[in-house]
Amino acid sequence: MNVVIVESLAKAKTINKYLGSDYKVFASFGHVRDLPAKKGSVLPDNDFAIKWSINNASEKLLSKIAQAVKESESLILATDPDREGEAISWHVLDILQQRNILKGKKIKRVIFNAITERAVLDAMITPRQIDSDLVDAYLARRALDYLVGFTLSPILWRKLSGPRSAGRVQSVALRLICDRESEIESFIREDYWSIFVNLRTMHNNICTARLVSFEGRNLGRFDIKTSEDAQKIRLMLEGAIFHVQAIESQLIKRNPAPPFTTSTLQQMASLRFNFSASHTMQVAQRLYEGIDLGGETAGLITYMRTDSVQIDPQAIDSMRKVINRTFGNDYVPEKPRHYITKAKNAQEAHEAIRPTNFNCPPDTVYRFLDSDNWRLYDLVWKRTIASQMQAADIERTIIEIKAENNGTVANLRVTGSIVCFDGFLALYADTCEDDIAETEENSLLSEIHVHENLRRDKIIVSKHKTEPQARYSEATLIKKLEEVGVGRPSTYAPTLSILRKREYINVEKRRLIPKPNGRILIAFLENFFNRYVEYDFTADLEEKLDLISDGKLKWKDVLRDFWQHFSVSVADIKDLRVTEVLDILNKALAPIVFPPKEDNSEPYSCPLCHIGRLSLKPSRYGAFVGCSNYPECKYSRHLDFYKKECRQKAEPIILGQDSQTGEDVSLRKGRFGFYIQRGEKKESKRISIPKNWQTNDIDLQKASLLLSLPREVGLHPESGNIIKATIGRYGPYINHNSQYINLENIDEVFSIGIERAAALLAKKQHTREKCSVSTTLANLGEHPEGGKVSIQNGRYSPYIKWNKINVSLPKDKDPTSIVLETALALIEAKIAKTETGKVYGKKRKRRQNI
Length: 850
Hints:
By secondary structure, this protein is α+β, with helices and mostly antiparallel strands. It is 37% helix and 22% strand. The strands form nine sheets. A six-stranded antiparallel barrel has the order 7-8-14-13-10-15. The protein has a four-stranded parallel β-sheet with strand order 2-1-5-6, with helices on both faces. It has a four-stranded antiparallel β-sheet with strand order 21-22-23-24, covered by helices on one side. The radius of gyration is 38 Å and the shape is extended.
């Protein structure tokens, strides 16, 4: 018997079917041991000795593996073909060697890039040894991440309280997100205008031309900055003659994109399907490990953690045959395409992500896959096949048009593209690159000729505002991390997951927004550990780790060099007091925490006591802004208090403390809108924000006014009972003895006096008494079932009365024209409608009960 070790249960089940009864396959369920999450797991003073720990579940599994190995001829380590896979195999081998179980056993390390029967069986006959260089690279990365995290975390706990941890790669990713947020906050929007002209050709077709110059000055996108300039140009164009000066056509070739790497697959799955990076990897893992295809289990794609764009030559031959069979020989390039990896030191796996069987197109496996599995497989299959297809031939046409009016000249330009030969576009086009799609207008450009006069149809002048760069999405952040050389294929998804888990970022509408704790952490690191969140430093460290994988550097040499400088930075900050750290952060975060006020008053002045100064304060729940005059003054607020979008979120914003109870007063968003809450208990007082109040204007003073409601106006001069003023569902009102009177505006709730309140109540009572007297306009006669039928003058309009039934008269009916027959018909209609409503109501209620 032979014992085989793989990572996952799904992979184990698939491989076991290929190998047969002579093999017993175990799943390690990832790493079987790791560094314990405590101090002393890596010892720099002891030549970076590492202490590993094995959890209970892994210990039970290792015991089963050890027992099986004792009874076997060989141990075959078949984990994934990357650094992490090599490390898992090394851990298992090292543990079994320490337990003296492998004496006389054959040890084999096999790798396969795809889980198919052929790939697995071929790997079994070509084993190798454990790659010690890859293991060393793993040890270096793991030790570095531990040293950074477990050295910085205690400092963060003592100095900041809120942020709980920092990491080598995650901190750089978080810095990118925070830097982009700072750029957005400091961006000043400016107005600009664009001008387009719809022009008619001699065939009466319309093309749209963009203004590119005016009076000899070239105009860029943002160069028309005032309404006056835009209107001046419009007036000139309204009387201008339009003349085609030149037409330039150019045939260009557009080549297909290379097959997917891990990062490009994550980016495209995010753009097309709104998949998160972690979800993309979960789906890809399932496709790699094996899918039941109606009795036969096989992996549909190759290994999904890779930064290589190379494809095996035999696979390329299969692809070219599929292209020829499906699209024809014209779509097969003369020579196979070979792509060069742009990522730095790409080496962790040997092939791009591709289908394992090109004779298995997506439509043939549709019924075996769920929606996400099929969409991702369809994407991988099409992108891979397209990467070996012929280039697309695209004719780009540029038409230069001169507009002249009494010696004033403007130049306009029409551009368009026509696909002459679709090539790979017949199968696949990136969503973000569909700018060459042929339109009706593009196809009409061939009808325009040089020296042709065009007729003005419409001038389109549009006002715009400049916009800052968009916040990062997961896709664009991964692309940026890859550009600056930070992280590797296996780290992108875990990094983003950690940032969300530790509440350093929010994800809203697919955009990554830093939370207060995240911004404080980055401000802290930039001021005290700036070198270690610099993009170049982190990228250089990644290159050194890759050189370890190549066997060109010793892993402990890299650790010594890093620790020598890092430990000095840690020692420098240990002696700093918390107040000194917070003073530095106050200045660093001033633009977002203490922005200039509209009245130019001191932004650090406490708005409650007007004596103390505001500053960042640490707490077990994270940093907040508090007053230096504490405990006499208990003013506090959320860090994002001044950010408009912060008040659109569901999380509470602390406005301060109640002057009487000392409880937090917070602004919150609930199911029915924004409200104020005092305290955190279930019975805590809550009151909705009035509709005409802006949430951005709510502070502790206004919140306290709302919480003070209902307000006692005073005692009624006649009844002696209390008159109260408050705000209800339909607006502000006063209440006396269950009599409610609406007030004109919210301010009256806090200012109305007893005299005005009593006057409003007396006026309402007089109106009610006057309207309560119903006068008879006409007696129409007796109802056939008994009882008089009459027309009454009601409070709002005349109506027909019979016993307890009242029927409003239609607006177009004159009460004096109503006769008994008409009244009886209206009464019958009212009775029928009421009975139908009752029956319908009972049926509806019965259905709900069912």
